[in-house]
Fold each of these.
Amino acid sequence: MTPRRCLYCQLSFEPSKFRPDQRVCNRGPCRLQRNADYHRAKIATDPDYAQVVRDSQKKWRDAHPDCQRDYRAAHPDCIEQNLLQQRQRDGRRRLGNLVKNNLALDLKHSCSEAWLVGPAAADLVKNNLAQSKLFIFQPVLPSPAASAGS
Ligand SMILES: [Zn+2]
């Protein structure tokens, strides 16, 4: 067997004679990474496997009801981070729904500028990709039932 380069650590290794297509070495961190990647890919592609994983996680949470509460009490910053990430996911989902529903039919061009102010702006001069948020305000229309009754 000719030596091969590991997919993760890039070190040379001898593939097993029983698995000539082996791409990852047998070192601990590489095995863990390979297993994690397999697990993640399997969840994404196999709904039955994903359901078994969800059931298993729920079973563990039910058996250890205090664990999550204790972790959050010990790591208050993770609550804030989760909240922020959930808001970002919700915002992306809402924006995706708007795109799918094609609600924005009459788009107006708007000129806008981004001003980089403050001591940290010097670091942003070369990195000029600006994040932005899009707000779409819709007029509140009275419902047909309310207007028919009056
Ligand atoms: Zn390796």
Note: The first strand starts at residue 4 and ends at 5.
Amino acid sequence: MKPFFKGRRILPVFFGAIAVFLCGPVSALAILSVPNISSNTPKIRVLLNESIAWVEVGGWDLDARTSRPIKSRLRSNGRVSWRFSCSSGRVRLVSPHTQVFEGPLEVSSPSGAFLWGSKMIRESLVIHPAKSGCSVVNVLDIEKYLDGVVNGEFSAKWNSEAVAAQVIAARSYALYQSKQARLNKAFFDVESTTKDQVYLGVEGEETRASQVVSKTRGVVLASALDERGARIRAFPSGDLVPIKAFYHSTCGGKTDSPEDVWGQPQIGVRGGVRCLHCGSSPRFRWDVKLSNLEIDRLFSSFGKGKVRSIEALSRFPSGRVRQVKVGFLDGAGKFSSTVLNGSQFRSILGVERLRSTFFDVSGSATRDWIFQGRGNGHGVGMCQWGAKEMGAEGYNAEQILTHYYPQAYLVKVWK
Ligand SMILES: [Zn+2]
């Protein structure tokens, strides 16, 4: 197999002596270990739902406790079902008897699992009194969390090297978010939806997924460059910060940068990576037709009249639309226009309809509007279809990852 880009093993040149290799289905990865590697796996706090009226938990020998502002505890003997509500900073047990708890209430079971409604919960569930109702956060081992992410964000059926690449990216993303959330004193680290990573819970776990998670245990992506873009020459010590390893379904040929898409650079993630591997994605090319009536409805909240023109005003180097100019004509015959950024325009049309900002537009106010585009998703970081195909073509997880994150290297941060 021919290398398809140069220089992807720069860090082993610096730290070759401490590179370690995994074996098995995820093979030959050059992975660095941090000094004094931790034996403890961190916990991640996953927001499962917000502002819900009731929280029902059930199981054996349940234990519920608050630690702040006041310590209190409730324990059951044998099987129990508890129903809670929240208001005014308090969690209230309303069934089978009443009891009031000040502050967040953490529920767990000595068996390690219990039910929240009909959903199996690992480790513990923290009920936070929200402004309205309760917010529910699952606190669990980050590796077990990843078991439930594999089939939510990708598929354990893919080639194991492609799955390993995805798992490492998902672990990096989760760890990055967790560190940021703790700095910001947020009450959760990640959401369980596409806002962060789709977590299917225990129901989404399966053996193949768990095997790959286990083979890549503790491995994350870290930047080989510092904040000023200089190559890191000393091995990171202390609290290593993983990269925020964004990924998306299909890039359509070229990835984009976080600064182009969200206006903020991100250490270790850059755009402009050419991808020759996602051509088999059903979203590699797409087109969508919208009637002028539909477009007028979507832009009615602007209060400027009917849409007369839509023009891609400028593009990023990747080819994605930077700005869109929408022209209007009101009932009094007055023309006006609005300039939106590509992402805003995409959200107005619907992200499920306009699959990316990598599009051309044609049509007119008297005909349909036709959008012809490429790719699916924001285009930043790893292209999942590209990774899937690279795995099928024989590339290993490290090759896949360093292709899409060329400024990153793999490092094992816990045993
Ligand atoms: Zn791609």
Note: Residues 250-251, 275, 277-278, 383, 385-386 surround zinc ion (CB under 6 Å).
